[in-house]
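ok here's the first one, seq then struct tokens
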Amino acid sequence: MKSLTNRESFFASLPEMKALFGNLVTVKDKEGCHCPGIHQGFIASIIQFQPLLEIAVFTSDGTKVEFTLKEAISTPIEICKTFTSSLGLIMDQRFSVLGNQVFLHVEFSRDPDAGIRDFSVDFSGALLFSPQGVPYHWEDEKKVNAYIKSTQELHGIWKETSFVLRFSKTLKGLALHKINAEEIKREQYFSSHNLKKRYTYWVERPQRGGYDEASSLCSRNMGYAGAWIPDFADGKKASIDINFSVLSTNEVADSDSPKPIEEVTTLLNNEWEEYIKKIPNFRCSEKNLEKIYYTSWYILKSGRIHFPEKRFTYPFTSVNKFHYYNQFFWDSAFQAIAWLWFNDPDPSESEMKNFVAHQWRNGMIPYELFMYPVNGREWMDGDSLTSGTTQPPVIGITLKEVFTKFGNKAYLHFFYDSLVEYERWLSLYRDLGKRGLSSYVNIWETGWDNSPRFDAAARNRVLDPFIEGVDFNVYIYILRETILQIASVLGKPEPQGIREHQAMTKRSMNELMYNQEDHFYYDLEAATDHRIPVKTAAGLLPLMTDIPSAAQRSALIDRYLCSEKEFLTTAPVPSVSQSEESYSSYDFWRGANWPQITWSVLYGICESEPDEAGKVLDRFLHSTSANENCYEYYDSATGEGAGLPFQGWGALYTDFIIRFVVGIHPTKEGFRFNPISKEYRNFQLDNLILKGRKISIERKGQTWNIGIAGYGVITYVETLICDVDLSGVEIAISFDPKKADLSSISFSGASYWQENTLFLKAEC
């Protein structure tokens, strides 16, 4: 199989995205719209341009020239389109996004024999204040100030963000006007039980200009319009450059002309080349799996953001740049796992740092960091900069995995004291019964917004009574274990009370949450023994820990996880069991599959129950990898993407593939080789760096080749689990003789055996 080595082959492995991502600005085509122009622009999901800029051409007698899209080429670098008309006029467009700027080059060429001579080009767009995921209650929060600075520049300001739309040629009649709410087309794209409906927006050309024109406006929604008369200096071609820049209010727009599109393309090419060098190469005979792997890396890079504000000192990965720019606690924790295999620790290590930097004085770590101040009423007394509640504390798993992979003690030092304070807050303020079980207080805090497990308790997002969630306490249990491990690594004394809290949690979960009659874990009403009788995937998450006994683990796996009547759907693991009346395969947390939940289950059982883990993994990958994007969640009955595309934790395929299919599990010394997939049998992974060593893994049917640069290649038939120690001058590979035929193992370089360990010597 050919190994991926450069930008061209990386791009060839991606589906057509029709979207370009910058830092604070994102642009994408509108589905079904073939009009010339840039169709949808998003500024940090607060301001939408629908469209950012549309182009219409008119002959000298006012007749609109109808264009047909002849060709469109889309890459992560640029989108190029060619439009033709019956009048012999050709329009070529190239646009790119670099940082916080959009660059559009438009060129017209004409056939002198076709008849069209003079014509005008109309530009128009619609600016809508339409935040996604953040409510703004006061009218002054919803208004944008905009003004025409010159016939070549449109400026706008909202809170700490400003924008500039610039044209390289002088326009005629550039002006603004208000757009009324009824003039905005809304199309519902998402609706779920107990949730608000979600819409996309569009403003038609007649509503964007031509009446009530003004040079300045303060409004929630407005349009702009202007015209340009092309000058065919050489008689054949005329062109114009348009630049859209997003800035913080303390920045000044570059007064020089925008960069030419060729220079932008060169800069982007170089940026992508440097990024791709740090990605492990993956080739697979199952092309869907290969494509979703590279799509994941595309989305991770596209989602990266550095907000120019002191509250966001550390770069992070946006949940979804079309809808949720704010940083979310458990999203970032799983996104750090997706970044784990990048051959640079910075993205994984920085992902969670903003949260502890804004930990509350009482120890609470907020679940959401707002890029813009809000009044916080819907976040239970938030401080307008952070939410007043927390979220499932997956941070314990993240810190453990990131440190194990990269081994940076300074990373642990950064988090340690904050984690101790956080655990203390969870125990002091959320353990109402003082029995080791902490409780959720708000629907949004759970992350499972519309789950039927909360139907009886939800009171306009507040939970009454509070709920002791199985998942919440599993993640807290792991968090406590991580704190103890960090203390050991850093040579610190164990924090007082954590082991006792762990023991109480284990005892209470088994005595109170676990139902001996049907062998399942259920949520509890806080500080009571009343179970909430709904089987959700949360009840499987104790499998991530040593909380269940051997018998309890078997029951959870045999009766539930691997039962096609319960959780073994086409795309496992559904958020609600199929046996529940409330189950709906595509409905959010009422039965849809969420990739981070599937990952959590596999993480918990891949070592102890590899066959069952492989069954779940192969079903999930086979059904969902056919999608041409990484989704927020999936229809558990079909595997079809049902949530938002371009989703951060949707990129967990990087870990699904490298950890579970290829079989590389990071350890302190190197890695444990333990692949669990039974379906994927022909693939190659290389350019993976672990502990400074470059690793390659190849599988051809029954044969495995494990290569370590500078040492050689190990070859054997069948899957042999082993531990690879990369820390010494000689590399040690230890096998379990009860599970491996050591005589079947061969090595291409210098080596020697010592009992059940193969020692590899460096090549001369």
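and now the second one, same deal
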Amino acid sequence: MRALWRIVGPLVAGEVRAVLRGFALTVLVLVMGVALLGVSGWFITAAAVAGLAGTGALFNVFVPSAMVRLLALGRTAARYGERVLTHDATLRALSRLRVRLMQGLVAAPWRRLERLRARAVLNRLVADIDALDGVMLRLLLPGLAGGAVILASGLVLSWLVHPWVGLWVACGYLVGPTLVFLFGARLARRPARRAEAAMQAMRSRLVDMVGAREDLAVFGQLDRAAEAVQGAVARHAEARAEVDRVERRMGFGLDLIGTLVVGGALGLGATLARAGEIGAPEVAIGTLAALALGETVAPVRRALAEVGRMISAARRVAPALDVPEETGGVAPSGMLVLEDVTFAQGQGRALFAPVSLRVAAGETVALTGPSGSGKSTLLLMAAGVLAPVGGRVTLGGTDVSAVPERALRRTVAMVPQRHALIAGTVAENLRLAAPEATEADLTAALEAVALSRVVAGKGGLDAPLGFHGAGLSGGEARRLVLARALLRRPEVLLLDEPTEGLDRATAERVMAGLRAALPDAAILLAAHRQAEISGADRVVTLRPPAS
């Protein structure tokens, strides 16, 4: 439950006024419900007693009936306002929570981000946010409002009816349902987690099966993938059935507690009436108010079915909300220097022999070596993404590990082998790097990578692209990512096999265009094609470590 409390602050922050107004209306709805049933019961009983006593002609029926109508209409209006306010506040709070979660993901270590599967992460993110909407709507507001109304009703019944009746009703509805909720939450937590895990597995497997259906069919694995989805569906159904059983049992417990409280209020009232301490109308008020208060504990049953899912989501979400404050810092500039740099995974053998190189402004240095020799890893260390196990990487004399992330990204840009394009227009993809760039800037960047004619043929800067840049060939997508990097105007440009998938003539044009667009930038690239190597001022070959 501690994880849920960590979520309450971020959810309520920024929506305090709306939440307080929603809380007030929730309390008003419950109070009106209790008052409506209590006044109705008193009215009917008092009218019956007056008729039996022969004083019915003198009994004023207009004021009580007007109160009943007022309470009924007011309760309906308050319920509508409460739903509008609380749901609107919750949706806005969840929207901000999504942004904070994405900021937390962006701030995660690069290696962790590299291992994430986009579909699984987004699926989990959506499911967790959906689960957390119940924290405010089905747990926090109903719980606090119900407790406040029960306490207030106990005090009012103590004044209007008798202290013993007020104490019985207040203690019965506060203690009993709380114990039922805590016990039921403990029983439901594990099956609720299993149900949520099965649901996530079902979604992920279904998405993977649909996305790779052609390959699965070719290799005869489509039936097996479908069986995996069906297995997840069966596990989800089994876990949900267990949650439903817990909910029914705890619901029976709540009904039993409500029956005991109402019966006890009636019994106490009858005893006090026989003793002459209260009259029949007061007995009716106490009994029917106790009956009406059953509405205050009704949300407990629904919360039981979702509390396990809420807790699991809160445990995953809460750590991701701790986003470190970003400081601008001073952007370093100057020569990129690698001094006796090497790298190894864990305690394993070094990937390559120590490397020392310098890349000055306006210079291009190519890294060569067989596949797997560590060229990409060296670029990641130059970008400050990976820390070398030996040696150091400096930029303008400053160790890159000591440079704030934001400042480093203003100076250093890297284009990895895998391109990252979004569904949107060509201009939207380019402006991810430079939101304020003009159309002339975008066109110049496309011209530098020999892509302007291709884009013009597809409809220009407003040409739409699909998911992952669908609509472009591999080489075209690669050049679009290169154009996006140029818009950053970096002082250091790191390229991982930038002309992969291009014919030699186009590759040479791209390499020349990159240098022309950034004449003063230091360019370090992992190269395996002659067009990339021939355009470099120096070539550094990575060698295996000494035995």
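notes on #2: The longest helix spans residues 222-274. Residues 381 and 387 are 6 Å apart (CA to CA).
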